[in-house]
Amino acid sequence: MAVIGIFVGTMYGNSLLVAEEAEAILAGMGHKATVYEDPDLADWEKYLGQYALVVTSTTGQGDLPDSIVPLYQGIKDKLGYQPEMRYGIIALGDSTYANFCGGGKLFDALLQEQSAQRVGEMLMIDASEHPEPEGESNPWVEQWGTLLK
């Protein structure tokens, strides 16, 4: 059984819906998962040495939603090297805009820079092709859950 913090960056609720579905799937697999809708660094630090699942949409010019910016800045400014952190990323975006899934890519780049270990590939969901993102994310979460120790 893995312990997983699910950290959400959302504007209109789609990322939160995906995160809540992921929480239910992972719990059904025997993992302990908790969703953080307005995450901060203290929430993240509870999972060092465990697992994090970042579920974020993209705003503006490939930016993170306001709800997850404090977490991102805290990790960037205060944590630095965190090779014990294992994580996954579900990025929501729209390919009709430049910087498709930029929020998720930004978070992934920060964690890679800090030597965190990504588990599996990042999932990028295109809103123009998949208006109901959980249809894409749920099978990915089921597969991702099998990779956790």
Distance between the termini: 7 Å
Per DSSP E runs of 2 or more residues, the count of β-strands stands at 6
Q: What average pLDDT do the residues reach?
A: 96
What is the succession of H and E elements?
A: EHEHEHEHEEH
Largest sheet report: 6 strands, parallel
Radius of gyration: 14 Å
Q: What is the strand content? A: 15-25%
The chain-level structural class is alpha/beta
Considering DSSP H and I runs of 4 or more, what fraction of the residues is helical?
25-40%
The tally of helices reads 5
Overall outline: globular
What are the segments in which pLDDT stays under 50 over at least 5 consecutive residues? none
What key attributes describe this structure?
5 helices; single chain; about 150 residues; 6-stranded parallel β-sheet; about 20% strand; alpha/beta
